[in-house]
Please model this.
Amino acid sequence: MISTIIFDMDGVIVDSEPVHYEIETSVMRDLGVNISRKEYLTFVGKTSKNMWTELIDRFDLEVSVESAIQMSKDRYHHELYHTDRPLAISGTLQLIKGLHAAGKKLVLASSSTLENIHMVLEKHQLKQYFSHIVGGDEVNNGKPEPDIFNLAAKRAKTLPSQCLVIEDSRNGVAAAKAAGMRCIGYDNPSSPGQLLYDADLVITDMTDLTAQNIFDKLGTVKPS
Model:
């Protein structure tokens, strides 16, 4: 029986992928790097540390990983403080509130840093719904490795077989399945082509999920 639902944040709770794309590629251009949108999408779900480590090595950039991350962080925080972005994804807030009211344990596990996670949750007044929060800066290996979901289950004191993950990226789905968890993949139009076929169920609209039907929908597919 599923007792704990683990939510990704970027691309599931808030539509932040377009914001991250604009910011990260602007920093890349400032550093002399130009990559295609298709290539950028391969980094969705990974930590900033993993992404910048790979880019700095590939393009032989004369900048530290920490400096590149700080440049991105400063621009993202400006967006959070001075604009209405990232917007909440339609349907997700209602699902979170409904599951919480139904007594399900909710955990947030995101590749974003804890600092960014808390800022987003405060902006959308969601912190009170999650019993535990896990950030990408708390694990050694980011998605697609299962570390972040293993830590989420440990903190929630829940067996992996009793966890359901909601993810929007190929890397996130791979991490959830590697952790031995059920997974619903959200095919977010803001990050297309994520190849979510390893998920137990794929949806194209978060409003399709409610606290009343989510387990019925998951029950229509063969368990992992």
Remarks:
- The radius of gyration is 17 Å.
- The chain has two domains: 4-16+86-219, 17-82.
